[in-house]
Amino acid sequence: MGKHILILEGDGIGPEIVREARKVLDVINTKFDLGLTFENDHMGGCAIDAYGVPLADSTLEKARKADAILLGAVGGPKWDKLDRSIRPEKGLLKIRSQLGLYANLRPALLYPQLVDASSLKPEVVSGLDILIVRELAGGIYFGEPRGIRVLENGEREGYNTYKYSESEIIRIGRTAFEMARKRNGKVCSVDKANVLEATMLWREVMDTLHKEYPDVELSHMYVDNAAMQLVRAPKQFDVLVTGNMFGDILSDAAAMLTGSIGMLPSASLDKEGRGMYEPCHGSAPDIAGQGIANPLATILSVSMMLRYSLGYPQVADAIEVAVGKVLDQGYRTADIYTEGKTKVSTSQMGDAVVAALNA
Ligand code: IPM
Ligand code: MG
User: What's the CATH class of domain 129-257?
Assistant: First the structure.
């Protein structure tokens, strides 16, 4: 039986970029005879419109049964004023926690063709290949208690809880060490252990776990320094492992090193390696519907899906080679455009990848 994929286009540019990723999926499905089957549903703002909630139980059920999920992006100004319990982002957070997708892999890889698209000097970023391993199902994003309360003096106070248990730290630590083994053997664990107890424990547990991975080099860095090092000398990193909120922030910074966040895919995996795949960027409502969004992050997310959840690493390679070819040919969406290249639309970029796969 072929593997089954649930597609959630989401909001904003979601439908446009997923349409291009779907073209790629259809081509490889035929070309490599994979027998993949697909189903579409809603999550985020579009699900609020269709079902009244950002993630319906029936959608979550489909997600549980699927071998992998492809997600576009969620959110937009249309739903920003809703009560915070039903905002589009809640759907994303719910699916991550309900499916136990704790390991978020965000590779920041600079394609050599895009070295001029980065805002950093070519010598600082050329050859860049970092993997951010972000804990995705815990930390301050999910910690209880949380809320906005009224104090005795009548003013309101917002509060959240930053916590990590030892088992949560161990499982994400294992992901990082194992990934490093397949790469350049270095893990840098990012925390704020000079201030936050939760991350003091994080550092201690990482050190203990490291004894099981003596072949991997482990270093620690405070998050403020890590942010600085990412823009100062990013090539010092191989695998960066960190908690949910720090990972959210650092992965946006790392994305920009590669020229555009429009190039960055991600995988969110559970303990069995089943997962959800989405571009690192958001729904970009400001450019939605204009046909100018970069579909490559979503197309590369499909490649990660084939590699990590579906067991077709050679097909994943083929997609990555095709993306490289398209960049060699000079095709650029607006976000990665530099003088002398050929500016293309979202669908032209998707077609170019398809053509490269068929060549
Ligand atoms: C991300 C996004 C999400 C997050 C938002 C949309 C909830 O920024 O995937 O990085 O903060 O995790
Ligand atoms: Mg983010």
Answer: alpha beta
